[in-house]
Amino acid sequence: MKKQLLFSITCVILAIGVILPTGCKEEDLSNSQAREYSGKFVRDYYTLQCKVTKETPGYFPPQAARAFAYVGLACYESVVHGITDGQSMAGQLNGWSSSALPQPEAEKEYNWALAANAAMADLMTHMYELRATPENLEAIRYMEEVNRAEMAYLVPQYVADRSIEYGKAISAAIFEISKNDGGHDSYLDPFQLPYELNQGDYCWVPTSSLTTPISPKWGACRPMMAVNVSETLAPMHKAYSADPASDFYEEAMAVYTQVNNNTEEEEEIARYWADDPFQTCTPAGHTFNILTQLLEETGATLEKTAVAYAKLGVAENDAFISCWKSKYDYDLIRPVSYIKQHIDPSFATVIGTPPFPAYSSGHSCEIAVGEKIFTYMFTDGDGNYNLADRSQLQYGYPVRYFTNFAEMAEECANSRFYGGIHYPMDNYEGLVTGRKIGDNVNNLLNWPSNVK
């Protein structure tokens, strides 16, 4: 960066007529590294994306996780050639051919911050543009413009232009990849109608005014890692039965007993992690907000920031595909419906029951991938981290404190039990699935090492 600054000052001096022995030749520059730039502007994009997600119709949890993922990958791919031992996801992710993405020109200088700024703004716009408010689309455009003006200061114009063009090319290529994954523009039709409800005592039935479930075909979407579906699906749940002596009845009775004996803190936990769509930016958004806080606290550069958001994006995207496939393969009745039929007709949950089947828990699955990514990125592998989760302050909730990422994940999973909307087995198997997916993303893809 010092070399680039010196080069730029030299060019300015030449422009006003002072002759220096050093010319403004492009070959005088050497490529910068992504770790030389701050990651703050990327965090700012994710903060904005949380707001846009919350305020855009059709962005339920699966749609939100997918959009967060692609924006993170656009950031990563726009800077990966500025990371020592960085490898593109092209040729690694399912459906991403080795030639799917443009390459930077050899021996040419790039400003990786400008490239990422262009890529993220473009792809975020594409992901929401058909239903986002004009104000939110303008906010994306304005953030890109302000960042560009700040980043391009003292950067040679041809380097800035090349970097921005490259970022936009990355965005365009990734958007094309996204169009055939099964979730393209899914926020326009989040209920994937027509859909006919299954019939059977064990089957999901509506629990609110919404008479059709959300995204019943989401399990058929293309995962970014095939193994994240083929080897992570939840096993068969306990056999459905209305017999009070059965294991299934015991699961429902556990929910009933818990809700009727919740402590004040347990009810607070249920509400804290609820993250209902359009009230917050969904469960995945909550986990991305925690990541944003972690990156800020650790002073992460653009290099580490890009890797972290891309990792969590791949994991969250696939977590919702795997979990949703299990949900609709098993189509299990929610506790509130079962309890009202077989235990107590007056039973009421602490929080609203989402409109889709019970097994397994989406919250448990998605927070478990966060646990694994955070553990890998911010600890020595033990998961120990003194986290004061401030991400829900914006919605009026107090800070919650954790000393380990597994503790964080387990509280989120338990929140669905305290809320009365999931059986214990839903949460247990959701955590198992999510942890497998998180491990797969950490260990089976070739990520840069020793990022800072």
What fraction of residues sit in β-strands?
A: under 5%
SSE order, one letter for each helix or strand: HHHHHHHHHHHHHEEHH
Shape: elongated
Would you tell me the structural class of the helices and strands?
A: mainly alpha
Cα gyration radius (Å): 24 Å
Kindly identify the CATH topology of the largest domain.
Vanadium-containing Chloroperoxidase, domain 2
* N-C termini distance: 17 Å
How many helical elements?
Answer: 15
Helix content: 40-55%
Number of strands: 2
Structural features, described:
The protein is mainly α and 452 residues long. The protein has 3 domains: 1-28; 29-178, Phosphatidic acid phosphatase type 2/haloperoxidase (Vanadium-containing Chloroperoxidase, domain 1); 200-444, Vanadium-containing Chloroperoxidase, domain 2 (Orthogonal Bundle). Helices cover 53% and strands 2% of the residues. It has 15 helices and 2 strands. The chain has helices spanning 2-15, 40-55, 61-79, 112-128, 134-151, 157-178, 227-230, 247-260, 264-272, 282-297, 302-330, 335-342, 362-378, 405-418, 424-444; strands at residues 384-389, 400-404. Strands 1-2 form a two-stranded antiparallel sheet. Helix 3 runs antiparallel to helix 11 (302-330). The longest helix is centred in the last third of the chain and has 29 residues, at 302-330. It is elongated. Residues 1-25 have low confidence and may be disordered.
List keywords for this structure.
single chain, 452 residues, mainly alpha, Vanadium-containing Chloroperoxidase, domain 1, Vanadium-containing Chloroperoxidase, domain 2, 3 domains, two-stranded antiparallel sheet, elongated
